User: Fold these one by one.
Assistant:
Number 1:
Amino acid sequence: MDWPHLVAFNATLLAALVSPGPAMLVALRATLLGGRAQGITTGFGLAIMAALWTGMALLGLDVIFALFPWAYTTAKVVGATYLIWLAIKMWRTAHQTLETVGDVVSRNRAFMAGFYANVANPKSMLFAASVLVVIFPPDMTLGNKLFIVLNQIVVEIVAYTAFAIALSTPPARAGYLALKPVLDRCAALILGVLGLRLMLTK
């Protein structure tokens, strides 16, 4: 493994981070509802679980899923169910005030919200596996694999922290509050569709 491999991986990772998906929606809502600290803490949870999926891909979990399709199906159904539950909850609270929804949660709850959001998508592990196969040589040492995982944690934490700082400004929060019912229901629809797509696609 050399630096061009790592640069290519980080570029792909950043492109995936900014694309619309469950992780981005969870990070966005955490920041706009609870502020900068909550958004950053949620980002930590997202980053840790995403890096764990990459670590599992490096250790060959994708091969296990291929050998035992029921294991992947189980993980996929559980993840899809969580995303659909999250979508229903978001839809039902769209018209509630921040005080009713609970705009600020504990650091532990914020971290776990991010962590579970990425647990809910086993396809991110398969994505990581495909990216790793394309970018990195097959004969990497255990030390190189550990470095890739730690690198991903750092890159994602930096990205989510920058994201939270940019969106935690008073104008951004005021704009969200003004459009909260519409934005929450749009986000709920997207999460619901992603959950159904995860459950129904092979």
Number 2:
Amino acid sequence: MRTISIYDGSVELQQLRYVLAVAETRNFTRAAENCFVVQSALSHQIKSLEQELGFQLFARTSRRVELTSAGAAFLPSARAALDAADRAVADSAAAVGQIRGTLSVGVIPTVTAVDIPAALGKFHRAHPAVPIRLRGGNSDAFINSITNGALDVAVLGLATSTPPEKVATEVLARERLVAVVSAKHRLASRRRLRLRDLADDTFVDFPEGSPGRTQSDLAFAAAGITRAVAFEAMGTELILDLVRQDLASTLLPPGLVTPSAELATIPLLDGPTRTQYLAWSSFNPTPAAAAFISLLKTDQRRSASSAGVGSDHS
């Protein structure tokens, strides 16, 4: 059985998996169920590990299970050891043409450059043995997760003037945001606007400091305009619902707004621009990540080629 050395003894990888399961569930019974093992076997393995280490990992009562301070200190190294073991298996499989391991993908709520469900479906059909995990969130958090190894790939959306750092990237799309207003808005019939035309409006936007809002804040600041953001929301659905009620205006990528009788989208001559990036580890992407990146790049090239062919005949 594969082992790793700790102090003067040896710890089995399965024991580490049991420790992580108990730490996550705070319950020996649920941990055993998650590991597909009887509770007595799991408890015995953890007790043996504690004896080997010379300290308790968990404080136990009949009703509660909690990590001890020593257990909390042990947990990151245990997780790293398991990740390294899984990576070794994945790398070995990749060397003989097999993709193993897990693919973890982060997606911003305003992605328009990639059809993520379609891409994940295509990847799954090509590599059915690879589990896929999908996370929603913001670009800054995704960059941190990629750099610390908690995430393989992410689609980011950032102000064009602030490209991502510490990760490898490829530009997926650049776009200028449009003004989105209620059909009842005083400017709804205009063909184009400038930011100063919206200076007196009340706005709905993503939370202050988030990458989804930064490009708009920078654009208004550059224009010397102080805007009133009375509503903050995490998702575009709520943002657009507030606009439909004529409670606020907003700026969004045009691909996120479905034409309707309740909304008007108006191009902005001096509106903010954002860039969507595909991001991954610049140090050592996993085989699954490399395969997914290759798939997306191939699809992007085909899409660009098709668009080029179409424009030649227009």
Number 3:
Amino acid sequence: MNAIEIFDSSSNANSSAWIVVNDGVMGGKSQSTFHLGAEGNAIFEGAVSLENNGGFCSVKLDAKALDLSNSNVFTIRMKGDGKEYQFRVKSKKEDSHSYIYHFQTSGNWENIEIPIIELYPSFRGKKLDLPNYDGSNLEEVAFLIGNKQEEKFQLLISKIEAT
């Protein structure tokens, strides 16, 4: 099966397509940036603050609508910092809920494999009584860090694809 490319930092060298959304939307003080690094990888980095009931940083990419119903796995080529992150997708950009999968990074370059069917629906941290993601439509991907602690973070992203 051919991989469906969602993001490749070497060919999608436009970091402005990604939008940072931090807890400032709710009064928090967390800060993050998303940019392309000197080696050509996308870099999502910043500092999570718990001040003013904050506690998360995220970045999202509006993807062209993709049908992933014949795919089983998202594969993300990345280098994390040993922290836990969330990979999030939306079937429709305007949906209030996201489908979420938690993953742990090792501190080394690695391929994180995320079974599509294991992404569960959630809104503001609450699991919803809806079916898990089925891959029939994809319009947004995102990364979020929110581990209920103040921490600096850095996630390098090379590629996101579905197979």
